[in-house]
Amino acid sequence: MITLRGYKLTHIYRYHKVLSDVSLELQSGDCFALFGPNGAGKTTLIKILSTLLRPTGGSVEIMGKDSRDHRIEARRDLFLMGHGTFHYDDLTVLENMEFAMALRGLSPPYSMLRNALDRVGIGPFTLQKSRYLSTGMQKRLALAKALLAQPNLLLLDEPYVALDEKGMQMMNDCIREFLDKGASVLMSSHDRAKAAEVSTRAGILQNKGLKEVPLKELANALF
Amino acid sequence: MPFFNLIKWIVWKDILCEMRNRENIASIFFFALNLIFIFSFSFAMDRNMTEAMMPGLIWVAFGFASILGLGKSFLAETYNDCLAYLQISPAHKGTIYLGKFLGNLLIMVAVELVLIPLFIIFFNLDILNKLPSFSLILIIATIGICAVGTLFSALTVQTRAREVLFPLLLLPLEAPIFIGAVEATRGAFHGDPIALYRHWIELLVVFDLVFIIASYWLFEFILDG
Amino acid sequence: MHNLIKRLRKVEGGVGALAFLFVAMGLYGGLVTSPPDYYQGEVVRIIYIHVPFAKCALLAYTMLFVGSVFYLWKKDPVVDNLCHAAAGVGVFMTAIALLTGSIWAKPTWNTWWTWDPRLVSFAILLLILIGYLMLRTLVEDRQKEAVYSAVLAIIGFIDLPIVYFSVEWWRTLHQPMSISTRGVSLAPEMLTPLILMSIGMSLLFSYMLMIRTQMLYLRHLLGAKRGGLISEVDLS
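YS: structure for the whole thing
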């Protein structure tokens, strides 16, 4: 089943073209690793695919539905872990989780929330204010939100940043869980080794275009 | 029902953050308090002048203090990119508007409840028996201030020079609120029967309805991807 | 070249010429052949400027609203340029209307300003339009700029009638009706130049709008060319 389809995506910021006719398609169980030099447009592409940004040209389909015409359904099917953590500094970890789920129309019971927090390793900090978490722990909280949201499409913008070795392993474990359930994952990263552990496909975003490369050649690809 | 649940959550989140942070509520309150002192010094008022000018002074104080607080309403969402999460949530953006609006309303009303006694004390006002009708005017006018203020807070939060742009855009459009609230308050303080000034209250109600409905529908465009 | 721009370029010459013609006739009629007012003297001639400019200001404000609604519906960038142009020309029209109104008021009613609902509404319109133009310069993202300013235009349009009525009610309370800006009775010799000027100014407004829209469109094309988005511009 095709979970994500980006068709001829073009984006121009003011007068600076960042993406030109980028197309890609993801099926259930695909994990696509997106690489590229700084400023290549990886974040822009992910923002467009997550409906955060409206592309100047092209269209995005999520689970077969156009993301502009069926915005609400499309957003229900996806989850974004972006550069910002989406946490409110003054709320506790638990309150942040509850609020994030409420915005998705979910109200999981405390046991489910606690399980997710334990799974990502910040269970002891459940009642701490988000402000006091380190960057790595905030990343884990974001991952816990994703685990509870159970999206069909998970978009990750540099997921390994700020995570320690155990954290990165846990991230990959969670990604594998998502893939086993039939979801698709698209991630952008600079860490080829870690991304290669879970990815099924890879591509390089360069010169405003996306070129898919076989995973085997990824280690040697120059960009 | 998800609609009310989401509104309840957004209000709860804002109140919780405000209670722990007290940034907004403190700035609104202390700014208005400062205005009370400045008014006293600038307009050395005798009994008659006080009675004539008090409605205006009260609403100038609330209006300008609200600019401080409402402007920050969406600022909290810009930290950690929380605004992006609101943008891509599968919720109707009008619902988010209503939640934010109600949160702002509660904060403004809380501040006003503390400030009114201070006005009474510092200016020796004799309005205790007129408080019921004044409370009605207070709530309706504050609804109007929060309705447009929340909309413009979201509109200007992603622009440069937002602290300047917010009052610049907001104040001309709030003119009917000031006119209506001051005139209605003047009637209430004077002890007039409500029939004499009810068309001002009706003006405020029309303003409130028009802007809440317009903002509800336009919010989709402001928080759009 | 965008279709709308092409159509504008075909029409603008004719509109400009007609505008010049009507304005010339109107000014001649107003300043030379029409009689001075019995009470106000020569000063009354300023209505040949004030009234048409005020009408054009309201025309600009209406066009801004219609254009903004259309933009939010169709997202056509040239319509966005049109809205931007309407606001710019509108600021000019409103400012001149207020200025000439003030110049008229002083010798006539011995006051530079009166809290008349129409004057106050025009002053607030000017503030809204200036706020609109400021908003446009302060938003970074191009698409957001267009959407936000459209939202502001719609809110402003909805608000202005409410402002008008509230000031009208307020004024009946606080200022007696001794002053009325509606009270100029018009002799037929004055009516004709006024109508000519109104038509002429509306045409002139349209002409200015067309020119300004094209200017903004060309500026956009220039930016696109500089950014390397288009290799050549077809200016035919």
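YS: worth flagging: The first helix of chain B runs from residue 2 to 21.
IM: good catch. Also Chain B has a mean pLDDT of 91.
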